[in-house]
Amino acid sequence: MLETVGVGTSDSEIELVVDGKAEIGEGPSWDARKGVLYWVDIQKGQIHTYDTVRDIDRTISIQGYVSSVVPRVNDDDVMVTLQHGFYKLNTRTADFSLISEVEQDLPSNRFNDGKCDTRGRLWAGTMNINEKEATGALYRLEGSRVERMLSNVTISNGIGWSPDNATMYYIDTPTRIVSAFDYDIDRGSIGRRRTAFNFSSQGGVPDGMAVDEEGMPWIAHWGGSKVSRWNPRTGKAVDQILVPAPNVSSCCFGGTHLDELYVTTAREGLDPTLLSMYPSSGGLFRVRPGVKGLPTNCFAHQ
Questions:
Q1: How big, in percent rounded to 5, are the helix, strand and coil portions of the chain?
Q2: Concatenated DSSP letters for 163-228?
Q3: Dihedral of the alpha carbons of 175, 179, 181, 183, in degrees to the nearest 10
Q4: Going from the N-terminus, what domains does the chain have, and what CATH number goes with each?
Q5: Which residues contact 241 (CB under 8 A, 6 or more apart)?
Q6: Can you tell me the mean pLDDT for 99-104?
Q7: Is 302's pLDDT higher than 80?
Q8: Model confidence at 6, in pLDDT bands (50, 70, 90)?
Q9: What would the 3-class secondary structure string for 250-296 be?
Q10: What contacts 9, CB < 8 A, 6 or more positions away?
Q11: Strand, helix or coil at 25?
């Protein structure tokens, strides 16, 4: 039996902070310099900037998909992934600048989740929009140079690193497997792949993730109404946070002390009955899980 955090514990209750009604809320990242939580609605083409101090959520809308957003080092811009490319976005003017494109010959693909390592390289993967064929891949952007790191991916999703940078975690959702790779932080390369966690007996499928300061990944359950914490030494789930939405898509640590977990959710695929049962679906949630997380790494090139 997993211990449940947030049920009957006053200092760990999950709260709805933005009732965004996102079709697919995703890609949360924390900008410590501004006290801002970035997140996106993939289907609506919206980049959200949630000012946690003023409790204001602002949106920038684009034409098409936007799947991830991360801050940049030394400026006010952010990096975003649109359907086929890495872009720089000025959050004040809403101006976009193309950095690099991929898969222009695959119109049925789009980018999905993306994260930076501690050296500021941006890793992001693609997926088949119909979620049926393994036509996606995982890419690494360093400066303006893109390199394909994995092929034959169906739905590229959560990415995270251990505190010592020796391990990279990665999710291809339909496999129900969270993989671990040996990671060379100096070269930004991956080696020896193995199974870190198996979701075959879990509710829902693994989606986005965040890693805490103790080296334990927190993984969102799409179709499972929760975020779970996993111990990489045992390969077992050790904790969970229940979320009042069936489709939990991703999470990241934020707040002044990185002791808050922000959780994105989605309304996609929910019929009217489920939406009446879970009216906050598509919202951005926050909870204090009792452990601090690793910071969001900024893009540090170009």
A1: 5, 55, 40
A2: TTSSEEEEEEGGGTEEEEEEEETTTTEEEEEEEEEE-TTSSSEEEEEEEBTTS-EEEEEETTTEEE
A3: 110
A4: 3-287 (2.120.10.30)
A5: 4, 5, 6, 12, 14, 226, 227, 228, 261, 263, 287, 289
A6: 95
A7: no
A8: very low
A9: EEEEECCCCCEEEEEEECCCCCHHHHHHCCCCCCEEEECCCCCECCC
A10: none
A11: strand
pLDDT at 76: 80
Q: What is the pLDDT of residues 269-301, one digit of tens each?
A: 999 999 999 999 999 999 999 999 999 999 997
Alpha-carbon span 287 to 269, nearest angstrom:
25
Distance CA 80, CA 257 (A): 25
Q: What is the mean pLDDT of residues 69-77?
A: 89
Rounded to an integer, what distance in angstroms lies between the CA atom of residue 123 and that of residue 146? 9
> What is the predicted pLDDT for the residue at 9?
30
